[in-house]
């Protein structure tokens, strides 16, 4: 196995088991690819995804076609927060998975916080 993959697996095993989502306080899981960012709100008790959103949805909107990936991630956090607030969810647990808390991952968390989701 390549070193980079082994490092990701090791980091995920260290971070993710300590983060558990419930119905009132779901787990916000982040997956980052080279092009897109995918975010899900997950209820681990029922093993159910409550809300899912990605930067692909953000790019379809006209006003956000030509912005940087980090700004798209910030908008993604705001849009996810709107959907969570529609479900009457005000708190969440942030699961960064194997990714370092900076750049696009941090922008998602800041977007959620700006839209009044307590992380």
Describe the structure.
By secondary structure, this protein is α+β, with helices and mostly antiparallel strands. The chain has one domain (3-114): Nucleotidyltransferase, domain 5, CATH 3.30.420.100. Helix content is 40%, strand content 19%. A four-stranded mixed beta sheet has the order 3-2-1-4. Helix 3 (69-86) packs parallel to helix 4.
CATH topology assignment: Nucleotidyltransferase, domain 5
CATH architecture: 2-Layer Sandwich
| Strand/helix succession | HEEEHHEH
The main pleated sheet reads as: 4 strands, mixed
Shape descriptor reads globular
Whole-angstrom Rg? 14 Å
Q: Helix/strand/pairing class, anyone?
A: alpha+beta
Q: Calculate the terminal CA-CA distance, rounded to whole Å.
A: 34 Å
The residue fraction in helices comes out at: 40-55%
Tally of alpha and pi helices: 4
Strand-residue proportion? 15-25%
Enumerate the strands of the largest sheet in spatial order, edge to edge or round the barrel.
Answer: 3-2-1-4
Mean pLDDT: 89
- Indicate the low-confidence ranges by residue numbers: none
> CATH class, anyone?
Alpha Beta
Q: List how many beta strands DSSP finds.
A: 4
Number of domains: 1
Protein name: 50S ribosomal protein L18
Family: Belongs to the universal ribosomal protein uL18 family.
Keywords: Ribonucleoprotein, Ribosomal protein
GO molecular function: 5S rRNA binding; structural constituent of ribosome
